Amino acid sequence: MLQPPVKGKTVLGLDPAYRTGCKIAVVDETGKVLDTAVIYPTPPQNKVEEAKKMMKHLIEKNNVDIISIGNGTASRESEIFVAELLKEIDRKVYYMVVSEAGASVYSASKLGAEEFPDFDVALRSAVSIARRLQDPLAELVKIDPKAIGVGQYQHDMNQKRLGETLGGVVEDCVNSVGVDLNTASPSLLSYISGVSSAIAKNIVEYRETNGKFRKRDELKKVKKLGDKTFEQCAGFLRIPDGDNVLDNTSVHPESYEAAKKLLDIMGYSLEDVKQKKLDGLKEKVEKTGISKIAEEIGVGVPTLRDIIKELLKPGRDPRDELPKPILLTDVLHLEDLRPGMVLTVL
């Protein structure tokens, strides 16, 4: 769930199959569906050339950057087909095999039907496979954690306790990463601390009616979202292009004054935070004395350290510190290896 997202790329999702054909969905960098199709490059049809023609058309038409292949039935054959196809086109396109665990559950779910009422169940799976590469966390929260497949003996466990534990893990993941208040789905918002499913829907409804949130305080205008809920959730909800750069950090609104005092004492401004011009802030604080500064701005030392960390990297995504997804082109056999290649072995 904490696999780093692949941002700003147009992705073609490929849900492999044999008899019923491979389903395709192309999504833009925001996850919006641009195109869908069904091709038959695998047995028993083996319409490889016809499938290549369709894929080339979709790649060219939509400026596809990456192909996301589900790892289920016929995945290997589909990977070979895609690798061969990429050798025949001029555009630099990569591919990656992603886990499709739970994709079929999402496609047949009420949520899947609400999101894509006009789509066939299999095409919804292709959309999910494409989006999983773009932002695994945002897509996986749409399904029951138990459907992801967390162990061979999960069905032998107490299902209530298992559900609560897995739900807690998902909640920890979502809150540690944070959520963009202006793009998050109700499914994602419902895992934020203090936010129920009803409040999550109200947030989206408010956003659709009044436009993008400009500041965190606007949350208090959302139906059923009171002061206590705001206190619990505000620090986990981000506004990247808001009126206050602190709204794009995990600094809680109750610590805004402390953050501003810190900047003032050290000779910086909120504009410096926005422009990422805080070189030397950490060193200046250490030199002055972190305990002294903490006392002066009215917070504890651990809170001060957290504030400094967030000010230095507004919009920080902890997933960016993890190993990036491995994007491939054509290394499928030993014969594909060439002198100078550097490969990551899984």
From TrEMBL:
Superkingdom as given in the UniProt entry: Bacteria
GO terms classed as biological process: nucleobase-containing compound metabolic process; translation
InterPro entries: HHH_9 (IPR041692), Ribos_protein_bS1-like (IPR050437), RNaseH-like_sf (IPR012337), RuvA_2-like (IPR010994), Tex_YqgF (IPR032639), YqgF/RNaseH-like_dom (IPR006641), YqgF/RNaseH-like_dom_sf (IPR037027)
Gene3D superfamilies assigned to the protein according to its UniProt record, in alphabetical order: Tex RuvX-like domain-like (1.10.150.310), YqgF/RNase H-like domain (3.30.420.140)
One GO molecular-function entry: mRNA binding
Listed transmembrane segments: none
Domain YqgF/RNase H-like: 9-107
Pfam family, one: HHH_9
PANTHER family (alphabetical): 30S RIBOSOMAL PROTEIN S1, S1 RNA-BINDING DOMAIN-CONTAINING PROTEIN 1
Full protein name: Transcription accessory protein
